[in-house]
């Protein structure tokens, strides 16, 4: 073996060992903190692990240039099979990774993955039978030799990398410029190196190029994605905290001392004049308090029927206090939808406290539901003094606006709903629309 060949073998072995070391970096990162449990990270881990096995298979070629006996030939055959099988898995896992990263769905995703599966299966098949048929490669006393069907092992990655390139170009709007650059870098480095090595066996630049490209993707795409996910999680945590604070604030605003005192006072009087009504009122009062406590724990929308029952308890207690001055009409055509907890009560309380009770003759509150144009529509109407006049009363206007603001924001955030208000001197109509 001449000196030049020895130097080339030594250089390739060193490059392969360096490739393994570089590839271990993303593997260690993905294994730490169990990041591999995320689907995208698991695919990326598959690419990295497959790349290490591919490099190990390549090392057998450079370490066993002239196999001395049958066991060395068998070892070289096994290493060569490992190289081609692992390289097919590199392509397969990268197809899973890039389609998941770009969030491809439907026929495009199925066609891409099916094409990669088929061509990779072809390469694996010929790689496994080559030790017996010599189709892609065979081993002699002079080491690894290319077989008559060697071109298959080159066309498979060529097809896959061209497919990946087409995906990146066609779906580039889903990616940032940096992501496009580094995805294409990962594609063209092994593509160019493979094309060079197809015609000559010199310095093996493919493996080290793939390892470096993996690091580039890790640093410039994976790290950035993880930072974006952390920011999104922090944003969601802030929104959840905001909703929790709103729940607490609204609940406390609905259990104000004056309401408790007045309701208990009304029940006390009923105990003397109408014990049966007093028992009913105590049950309604207990259910009302339980509903407020349950709403503090709720983090998801609740059935409208449950919210309506809570409001009915509230209005029943208010009617015990004000008698004929407060009249309630229910026109419930549908209740098969969900609302944020304590959506209706602040609106109904505003109608009672800031509208009807400031009218000498009292008034009527109408709660109506219907389905219209793909929305569940809830209407709370009163024939009170109107919000403009109520806003002029001391300490009433601000309280009403805060309650309405909280309801509106929770409707938008939890059920993508909306709230509209129409008010005049003849009363107020509040309309809630929730996508059906």
Secondary structure tally: strands: 9
Task: Kindly report the spatial arrangement of strands forming the biggest sheet.
Answer: 4-6-7-9-8
Q: Name the shape in a single word.
A: rod-shaped
Mean pLDDT: 81
Helix proportion range: 55-70%
End-to-end span in angstroms? 79 Å
How much of the polypeptide forms β-strand, as a percent range? 5-15%
The main sheet comes to: 5 strands, mixed
What does this structure look like?
With 436 residues, this protein is α+β, with helices and mostly antiparallel strands. It has helices spanning 3-31, 39-63, 70-101, 106-133, 150-170, 177-199, 206-254, 257-273, 275-297, 304-322, 344-354, 387-391, 397-415; strands at 137-140, 143-146, 302-303, 326-332, 338-339, 363-372, 375-382, 418-424, 427-435. The strands form 3 sheets. A 5-stranded mixed β-sheet has the order 4-6-7-9-8, covered by helices on one side. It has a two-stranded antiparallel sheet with strand order 1-2. A hairpin with a 2-residue loop joins β8 (418-424) and β9 (427-435). α5 (150-170) runs antiparallel to α6, α6 runs antiparallel to α7 and α8 crosses α10. The longest helix is centred in the middle third of the chain and has 49 residues, at 206-254. The radius of gyration is 36 Å and the shape is rod-shaped. The relative contact order is 0.06.
